[in-house]
Amino acid sequence: MNLPDRLPPVADGLHLWSPGHAGTWGFANCLLITSGEQAALVDTPYDRPMTEALLAAARPVLPAGAAAVRTIVNTHVNGDHTFGNGCFPGAEIIATKASAEHLCREPSPQQMHFLTHQTPADQPLGWYAREHFGRYEYEGVESVPPTTTFSGRYALTVGDIEAELIEVGPAHSAGDLIVHLPRQRVVCAGDVLFADDHPVHWDGPLARVAGACETILALDPEVVIPGHGPVMSVEDVRDHVTYLRELEALVHAHHAAGVSVAEAAADILASGFHDHLGLRERVVILTAVEYRYLDGDAGEVDVVGLAAQAAAWAYRDHGPGRS
């Protein structure tokens, strides 16, 4: 697995671990904040080997007196942003109250191990799980919940660096937050923003995700760090809002015409909607989540069930024996 061996600077006191790997799942960005003898980390990688690689890359930029990262901020509680929490024993872990309340619906490391090792490899979900998640080591990983939660806004100080944690969920997930570093004019967006691939959102609706992106724009940043992919400009964020509004209009038109969710997703994909982006099957999930909203379905989101729908579409076109 090709992982970064250094953390390039984003601004004074900010260094980014960005593993890249467009076209697959799980390689989330992590932002290291250092000042004086203090260090904080926004999000943690998906498994222990990745987290150990991050820590090795971070050593040259950690302050001399910072023997360990003592503060973790989780932008949301998907495993690819939190499963590394356990590698920081004793750290304060900050997330929104809504994230903590919905942690129980997130696939656990044990469930991910089952999906990648014990589901039938010749069936869509088993094939897809192995293709996109089989590289990660889930055995021995425990999901570590937040120790500090908040609603609304939370002021965080790391040495001389001031950060504002702003709740913007439900959007990508039930309890998203963004990290605003005003002096550096940087926003760490978590998964309300994706670069290079189609996004995936579990809660929505799309209008809420677009609203979260507009909150980022209102902060007037110079640099925006998405949950996955390369650093984005303000213009990139505006383009992403346009993407979300276009998809929203398409899904709503299909719903109003009485088209089934499966037919709607298939039609949008067949139209070539932003097909320069990777992971086109995520449009299946986005369509299903938006239909839930339009149908007034307030029940718990079945994350694995939604992933299975996307897997079925991908398997049809890209599974074993297919081009």
TrEMBL record:
<dbReference type="InterPro" id="IPR001279">
    <property type="entry name" value="Metallo-B-lactamas"/>
</dbReference>
<protein>
    <submittedName>
        <fullName>MBL fold metallo-hydrolase</fullName>
    </submittedName>
</protein>
<dbReference type="InterPro" id="IPR050855">
    <property type="entry name" value="NDM-1-like"/>
</dbReference>
<dbReference type="Pfam" id="PF00753">
    <property type="entry name" value="Lactamase_B"/>
</dbReference>
<feature type="domain" description="Metallo-beta-lactamase">
    <location>
        <begin position="27"/>
        <end position="228"/>
    </location>
</feature>
<dbReference type="InterPro" id="IPR036866">
    <property type="entry name" value="RibonucZ/Hydroxyglut_hydro"/>
</dbReference>
